[in-house]
Amino acid sequence: MNKTLLIVRIFFFSLCVLGSWLVCFTVKEWDKYQLLAIGIGCMLGGLVILVDLLLEGFSLRGLTALSFGLLMGAMIAFLIDISPLFENGDPAILYLVRLALYVIFMYLGTVVALRGQDEFNLVIPYIRFSPEAVESSLILLDTSALIDGRIVKLCETKFITTGIIIPRFVLDELQRVADSSDNARKEKGRQGLDYLNQLKSLPFLEIKIHESEVSERTAVDAKLVFLAKTLKAKLLTLDFNLAQLAEFQGVAWLNLNELYQSLVPETHVGDISTIELVKPGKDKGQAVGYLPDGSMMVVNDAQDHIGQKVNVKIISILPSAGGKMVFAEIFEQGT
After folding, report:
1. What's the rounded Cα separation, in Å, for the pair 43 and 40?
2. pLDDT confidence of 60, banded at 50, 70, 90?
3. How far apart are CA 213 and CA 218, in angstroms?
4. Greater confidence, 52 or 244?
5. Angle at CA 206, nearest 5°, toward 204 and 207?
6. How far lies 171's CA from each of 9, 142, 164, 174, in Å?
7. Considering the entire predicted model, what is its pTM?
């Protein structure tokens, strides 16, 4: 339990008891019933705190939807109340009918509003007012993006400084991965939590944990797409199936792999680069390394440098089934 909240509850309970006891000094007739007054204060404070505990987890979005539903129900009941239907009749019966009318319509309004509260956008994160009608660009992260970790480096460079939204159910899923009995999954989950803490430590980055209340029966992918659509946010994911689902429903999505590939510089004949040689080549004396985009580079007369980083000069580029194959030779200053 939050310590601050606990202190507030204790303080409120003490005020209820103290207030009830002081009533005995204000009302002379109650002077002999001090213990009863204190007991009433305890019951009143305990009842209010009990209601507070029952409302735990009830979000501001839910409270706004509840208020809106009550207001709309009361307005509909009022319009029916002032109609000619209630001009004649027994006043006692009309009073009971009016009372039932207000109760029924306010109940129905509340139920309808709470069922659609995720579509109820009077209160959503990142509302900004400015002279120009410019929508805030929000980015919604899924579990795969957090586990991958490249989002941290991207944010550190300040290419992303807008609002980042992480739904509560994504955090729950990440926690389940971190608690998995599978060591590989557990390691990925813990890395994801570590990357999340790194994101939160960036002072210029605005992160919002969204307390979404989408139905628990809904699949995580469907929840993400629905939430991105509701908040008009872009979905950042490495899950291809989720990306296709988002695209089908008209939700913009971002792909870190495509971004990474687009930033890899083009390779040209005559370029000088540094590469790590990892294994022997097919022909005698050759060694093989790999470019950042995954392309294979074959370096002539470099077998003695396997396991080392060397400077090479590109001499030819050939297309291949996997993309391209690059041929190079050892480059030394002055050659």
Report:
1. 5
2. low
3. 11
4. 244
5. 135
6. 29, 9, 14, 5
7. 0.47
Task: Report which residue type is found at 253.
Answer: W
Q: Please state whether 281 falls in left (phi above 0), alpha (psi between -120 and 50) or beta.
A: beta
CA geometry: angle at 319 spanning 313 and 325, to 5°? 40
Q: With bands split at pLDDT 50, 70 and 90, how would you rate the model's confidence at 14?
A: confident
For residues 51 and 79, membership in a common domain is answered with: no
Q: Count of CB atoms within 10 A of residue 249's CB?
A: 12
Burial class of 304 by CB neighbour count within 10 A (0 to 12, 13 to 18, 19+): exposed
How far apart, in whole angstroms, are the C-alpha atoms of residue 234 and residue 26? 62
Domain containing 194: what range? Answer: 139-261
> In the beta sheet, which residues pair with residue 167?
210
**Residue at which a domain ends, from 261, 280, 302:** 261
Structural domains in the chain (count): 4
205 vs 160: CA distance, rounded Å: 8
In whole angstroms, give the CA distance from residue 326 to residue 291.
9
Contact 140, 81 (CB under 8 A): no
Q: In what order do the strands lie in the sheet with 139-141?
A: 207-210, 164-167, 139-141, 234-236, 253-254
| In a domain? residue 129 | no
Rounded to whole angstroms, the Cα distance separating 61 from 333 reads: 66
CA end-to-end distance (rounded Å), the chain: 70
CA distances from 127 to 122, 134, 196 (A): 10, 11, 23
